[in-house]
């Protein structure tokens, strides 16, 4: 977008602007905005989606800038008054008190430089206000000489956008997974385990290829669903481990130019103390900044969980189809009317929402993969698709957590088994003949099934009529409960 086609800069509610400066010159900025010229340029350059960088990334920036100021103070690189002022302002950002002053679109510079400068400028201007100086004084020589805070020299000390933005991505994603998604996955796993135990004695017909198969206990099916979510919880541990390694300390290209050798490790330790999540400095800063493999791995875990949820929701929806002209082995809770034209119709809306979430997460994973793909986002010494990667990752985390929560609270807690329907379907299944194979052979068993189907009878009825086995032996072999165990 050329300067001639830029839209006018947004103004304050009173229509007033102030003039701020950066290395490119003067820029009108809304008078009451906490950001400065660099942020305003990005606002004008990227009017793409209308979606700002996720709040979780901004809050992570607050945590990060606070930790950086503490470490620079402890290393003797930043005087205590300036460090204290930066820490105070950054902690406000971490608490989400100034989200409205982070307006830059997701689709911005791929390094996240605009958002890093947004954070630097907001912190510097918060310090101005705290000290009774006008907003925008952070570039004033007299103010700085009196101990003022400069957005680059002080807030950004020892840092680069190229290592702070990926670090904020790691912090935000790791904390959202541990604080939101892990509890949701753990809770739904427990709910599924409860149902598995409750329905362990409920026997139903199994189905493979959507055709009748040998009997299975409803509890066994649900134990499989519970195991999927327990595996999901384990896989989230792998994702968090990958995201725990922070790129901070690599500065521009991973070499660590203009930063203290201990900076990265000390900031990681400070963040660990603040958040309770165990962060580490990256073992190789070149990999940490040049590639986004940790996000590809973590997103792969999100996709796997989405696939698991789609399987569970899809099965529940299928077993509950009907209520009279379908399978009907499960009774789904009625949460809302299902039709504007068919009175009394109730649809499996929660299952459908969960499946749609799963589709979206798979799409997010594709975007993240492409963002980390060589020649697309990962180019030489820096990945340049990071804001998009961060947005999609946090979207997946939020969507999956929400899907787990509604699936448990709005469906699983009210889900019922129709035991009578399960029994009816088992007795009518032709697959019951499978248990006769060891006694009369495969061919005779198949012939029984074909005759039963042709005559509209059960396998038990035809076998009794033909006298293939004594009735007691036949009843023993055709006991559905025994068919659900090995042997």
Question: Can you give me a brief rundown of this structure?
Answer:
It is built from 18 helices and ten strands.
Provide the CATH architecture of the largest domain: Up-down Bundle
Can you count the beta strands? 10
What strand line-up does the widest sheet have? 1-2
Compute the number of structural domains.
3
Largest sheet: 2 strands, antiparallel
CATH class of the largest domain equals Mainly Alpha
The CATH superfamily of the largest domain is Fumarase/aspartase (Central domain)
Distance N to C terminus: 72 Å
Decide which structural class fits the backbone. mainly alpha
Strand fraction band? Answer: 5-15%
Could you characterize what this model shows?
The chain has 3 domains: about 5-155, Fumarase/aspartase (N-terminal domain) (Fumarase C, Chain B, domain 1); about 170-420, Up-down Bundle (Fumarase C, Chain A, domain 2), CATH 1.20.200.10; about 430-485, Orthogonal Bundle (Ribonucleotide Reductase Protein R1, domain 1). It is mainly α and about 475 residues long. Helix 4 (about 115-130) packs across helix 7. The protein has helices spanning about 35-45, 55-75, 80-95, 115-130, 140-145, 150-155, 160-200, 220-245, 265-275, 285-290, 295-320, 350-370, 385-410, 420-430, 435-440, 440-455, 460-465, 470-475; strands at about 15-20, 25-30, 205-210, 210-215, 245, 280, 330, 380, 380-385, 415.
